[in-house]
Records
---
Amino acid sequence: MSRRNPSEVAERLHLPPEAAARVRGLDGEAPPEPRLPPYAEAPALLDRLAVAPRDAAEILAGWPSGDWPPELGWLLGKVVAAVRADLGGAAWLVPGPSLPRDRGPAWRHFYVYAYLALLNDVRAYHARHGVPDDVSWTTLADLGRNLAIDRRMNGEGWPVMLQWLTLHVRGGIYELGRLQFQRRQTPESRALALHIPRSGPLTPGACDRSFAWAREFFPRHFPDEPYDEVTCGSWLLDPTLAEYLPADSNILRFQRRFELLPGGEDGTEDFLRFVFGTLATPLDELTARTSLQRAGLAHLRAGGRWLNRKGRVALNGRP
């Protein structure tokens, strides 16, 4: 595709101000053509990525084609090139603008197409590091999980995941059993970042196995990145939960693994997103069905808030 004026691209796509400003900040060079999988192979691939049939049907309906505005195709190339340029990176990356999702499947699933276009790159990266196929595909199948969350949240979930899923297609994160571990070595820290997907009970046994796996996995596949601890930042580490949950609850047993660090920030939005699957429903209209939901709602209705607290635990030795 020929060189384009980013301001014209933003104008022709009729983007909201914030998105338009991000597009105007791009250079006008023609990006490489995104290497999407063949359309005929897409259904099987989406199934392997745990994408639900309804979501898969929408993705296929909006598949990049000659019907796309050329400016949208240009932007897709730019986004894919930006992520590909940071292959192996593990920091947060926002590769493009947040697009209006009410314009149809092509717009709603724009970043899915970017994800699919990067699969060959990250699979090759995994292979170079000896990452087993089962870990590779399990990690990448977080796509389907997040699309399902977004659907349950009526579209409120995906914007947050725009940068989150760039970790997966850059080789920055790995799902090892119940938990996900993000490579995040810096000159100041040799700590893996821990993430807790919505994939079942957070039992002590499942967490023990994930930590044991991580202790073996990273020295084997990333020997040049020595990690000595794991950090976690989450509302799950808010000590206030102990006022509402039984001492033997999985969440409190998970908390006790960590040395809690000072400080914290408001995590109420994260709590509502992950526990109730909504950000738009008023508190007095929420229905609590689990002990965690009842605890969380009681605290919020009493005027409290939930904090994202950070904790750390040594990677070597039993967590």
---
Amino acid sequence: MPDHTRPAVAEISGTAAGDTPLLSVVVPVRNEAPNIAPLVAEIGAALAAIPHEIVYVDDGSTDATAATLDELARSTPALRVLGHVASCGQSAAIVTGVRAARGDWIATLDGDGQNDPADIPALWDFALAESAAGGPPLMVAGWRVNRRDTQVKRLSSRLANRIRARLLGDATPDTGCGLKLFPRALFLSLPAFDHMHRFLPALVLRQGGRVVSRPVNHRPRMRGQSNYGTLDRLAVGIVDLFGVIWLQRRWKRPRLRP
């Protein structure tokens, strides 16, 4: 059986900033060449006041994504680029990016430009304040209150979120939002498997962490077309859901004596 959590990876190009970043923005992409330069520019502008790096993971693209990233990395010191030799899926790309990241905090974004990087500083400030107050490790999940997608996507996501919340008890209204912020160490403590990114809130809760949803902006897709489609999600969703239920039932969080 192939190991989807350890895809073949090649460093394409790019140099990171000299100073260690506080925040790493991980962006998984497949065939998103037209969206790369605009999104990288937006991330840089939004995080100008925060020491950061941008980690793109090209998930086996067959368009000009690799060449576009290669060229852009030459002029963008904060941009680092990794590439899967063949497509392994969005979750594998996120895992690759987080493992390679140097920041203690991770923000994830979808590569299609629909998530707004301008939301990251507010999520970052909220996460730091909550963490300073103590308590379990925190994931801040974006909540696309005014989602700008097709009716089919909106209805299928609404149904999937209700089913997940009912069966997994993750109390998260929008688990599919690509914009999330969390400690790198927390993510690395989670079990890695194909499609895990759709269940991150439930996995964080299983690990003893907590999840807070915050409203974020959502924008229509301006260029290209979806590469991780609705039918793909529906085809594997039920199997994945019962797999996560199994994980929840097969683990008891130990509590240390005072």
---
Amino acid sequence: MSVLDNWEQWKDFLGDRLHHAQNEGMSKDVINDLAYQIGDYLASQVEAKNDQEKVLADLWSVASPEEQHAIANMMVKLVQNDGGAKA
């Protein structure tokens, strides 16, 4: 089963990667840029596996690049502030 199949597992996966990147010394700007690149890849190359991903994909498809960056930044904040992420 892919981490993309379950929203909570996906958020936990992202949270783990975020904390790892922070522990390796990546800056907030680099992390946000990577989040944007991952979001862009997922939106164009990967089929949404659950309702939450479908909503994100729909929002991404109508957003300007600036709005897409905002969506990516919000996802970083979501997994950073979600208690499920492990340090």
